[in-house]
Amino acid sequence: MKPSRSVMFRMLVGLILGVSSWCPWAADSRQWTSLEKDGIHDQENPALQVMQPPADALRLLPPDSAGNQVNWVKALRDGYIKPRTNLYETTEVRVLDSNILMKRTAELPYVLFPHRAHTEWLDCSNCHEKLFRSKTGSTPMNMFAILQGEYCGQCHGAVAFPLTECTRCHSVPRNSAGASQPVSK
Ligand code: HEC
Ligand code: HEC
Ligand code: HEC
After folding, report:
1. Ligand nearest the Cα atom of residue 62
2. Which of 2, 95, 107, 147 has CA atoms 20 to 30 A from the CA of 167?
């Protein structure tokens, strides 16, 4: 018996859906906790049923080994996501491409703070002048305060990669070529 038109139609739809959910990240073994089990969402709230499961949304984005396992900087730069940058047409988006080398790191590699990776998401006023002063070396930061959720710790460990990823911030080896840049202190 020949397949009916509607069966053919359903096979075609299935094929298209199958292709569009094809995952570009080979051997992707990332797993995400469901909203029912994450201990954050209200289980009584009926809206939970209509929310997209994290695994469906996040597995299409470039992988990362820490936090929610998405490399968000890459996701933005490679166009996987296009977050709305402003509510009003008049809001100006300012990307600042300057790096700051922070040298008060005891024995550890220096910290490189990239303005670009931050201003692609954030406005200057998210950080200046309350969290950080716009003068290199003038903000009295230290790791203890950061781990308490101050300075970088306002976001890292909350909405950006976690503080356990020491080497992402402490990324410039002492005595390397990059270590002779402008200094904080
Ligand atoms: C995610 C936080 C963050 C954002 C957003 C941010 N900055 Fe900064 N900025 C810093 C930090 C940290 C320092 C270093 C402070 C210190 O060393 O005490 C700094 C230092 C500066 C400095 C002094 C060093 C230099 O490069 O001359 C200027 C000027 C500055 N920022 C301007 C801006 C402007 C303009 C914007 C928006 C386009 C901006 N910043 C957005 C965190 C931020
Ligand atoms: C989000 C960025 C970030 C991460 C992640 C991070 N640090 Fe830091 N760390 C800093 C900054 C900024 C400073 C201060 C640098 C300055 O003021 O010159 C600092 C300073 C330090 C210092 C100097 C002494 C002190 O108490 O301030 C040590 C030691 C240190 N960090 C250890 C660590 C270790 C260990 C980890 C991982 C468990 C880590 N850091 C993760 C940003 C980070
Ligand atoms: C206002 C929020 C905020 C603050 C404060 C903040 N960050 Fe970030 N940071 C982000 C976000 C958002 C990203 C992009 C998402 C991610 O990588 O998790 C990011 C990414 C980064 C990256 C990765 C850049 C890349 O190319 O992958 C580094 C390094 C970094 N931050 C260091 C720091 C350091 C050091 C401080 C403190 C001096 C700091 N950040 C303070 C929000 C913040």
Report:
1. 3
2. 95
Q: Using CA positions, which residue lies closest to atom 23 of ligand 2? A: 105
* Residue 149 counted as domain residue: yes
> Which residue has the CA at smallest separation from atom 11 of ligand 3?
160
What is the per-residue pLDDT across 112-150, written as a single tens digit (0 to 9) for each? 999 999 999 999 999 999 999 999 999 999 999 999 999
pLDDT on residue 9: 52
Burial of 76 (C-beta count, 10 Å sphere; 0-12/13-18/19+):
middle
**What's 126's domain CATH number?**
3.90.10.10
In a domain, 137, yes or no: yes
Number of structural domains (the chain) is: 2
Q: Confirm whether 90 is domain-assigned.
A: no
Distance in angstroms (rounded) separating the CA atoms of residues 61 and 69: 9
Give the ligand at the shortest distance from the Cα of 104: 2
Q: How many CB atoms lie within 10 A of CB 59?
A: 19
| CA pseudo-torsion sign 110, 166, 80, 40 | negative
Q: Which domain holds residue 71?
A: 51-83
The CA 65 to ligand 2 mean position distance, Å, reads 20
